[in-house]
Amino acid sequence: MTIAGSDPSGGAGLQADLKTFHQHGVYGTSIVTLLTVQNTHAVSAVQTIDIDFVTAQLDAVVSDLPPTAAKTGALGSAAIIDAVAARAADFVFPLVVDPVMISKHGASLIDKKAISSLRDQLIPKAFLLTPNRLEAARLTDQNVVTIDQMMQAASTIFAMGARNVLVKGGGMNDQAVDVLYDGKRFSLFEAERIDTVHTHGTGCVLSAAITANLANGLTLTKAIESAKRFISTAIQSGSGVGNGIRPVDFHSPI
Ligand code: PXL
C-alpha cells in the first residue's frame, strides 16, 4: 500500500509507487493524499485531499486488503500526517516513510508545520525512514553534506523513533552513497553515480521498491540492495518520455 500524492505525468508519486510494486510482482493499493497538476517540466498546482477522505480510503483498504508492507510519500499537511500517524499506530506491517518535502522542480509538497508532525508523530511509527540529504537536514536542523554528517543525521533521526534510517546521498561527487543506521551499526550502500538530469521520481521509486521487497519477505539489507540495483538500472535506461526532467524506466529488471 502506498499513501501518497498523485503525479498525473506518471513518473513520481503514487503512480510511480504502483508501477514499481507491479514490476516487483506485488499487488498495489493507493491512498491519495494530494493531487498535483504536473508534467515533466513543472508542478503548477497542489491540492490536498480532506483528512476524513484520506482516512476513509485508508480504513477501506486496510480492512479488506490488509497490506504486507506500506509506504508514505507526499502527505501535504501536518493534519494529514497526524491522521496517518494515528492509523499507523495499529499497523501490523512495516511502514516505510519517505519524508517527501519538495519535488524535483522545487515545488513544496508539505507545509511548515508538517516537519514537526513528521518528527513527533510519524517518524516514531516508521520501520524505515528514507530522507535525502536535504530532508535529513530539515528534520535534524543540521547540515547534511558529508558522509559523516549523513551518519550523524541518521542517528539523530533514529533517536526520534524510526527503527531504521536510510539517508540517501544521491548527487554527491561521483558516487551515490546511502547510509543505513539500525541503532547498532552503520552500513554504506554504494552505487555508481549516473550522470543524467532524468531523475523524476527516483526517491519514490527507491522507497516503493524497498517496500515491495519487504512485502516479498526480504530482509531490510537485501531489500535495500535490490532496490538500489533496480533504481540504478531504471535511471540508466530512462523512460524516454517527456521533455523536462524525465521519469525512470519502470520496466527495468528487478
Ligand atoms: O518525488 C517526490 C514526489 C512525490 N509525490 C508527488 C510528486 C513528487 C515529485 O514531483 O509530484 C505527488
From TrEMBL:
It holds the Pfam family Phos_pyr_kin. Pathway: Cofactor biosynthesis; thiamine diphosphate biosynthesis. GO terms for biological process: thiamine biosynthetic process. Keywords: ATP-binding, Kinase, Nucleotide-binding, Transferase. InterPro entries: HMP/HMP-P_kinase_dom, PM/HMP-P_kinase-1, Ribokinase-like. The keyword Hydrolase does not apply. SUPFAM superfamilies: Ribokinase-like. Gene3D superfamilies: 3.40.1190.20. Its EC number is 2.7.1.49. Residues 7-249 form the Pyridoxamine kinase/Phosphomethylpyrimidine kinase domain. The keyword Lipid biosynthesis does not apply. This is hydroxymethylpyrimidine kinase. The gene is thiD.
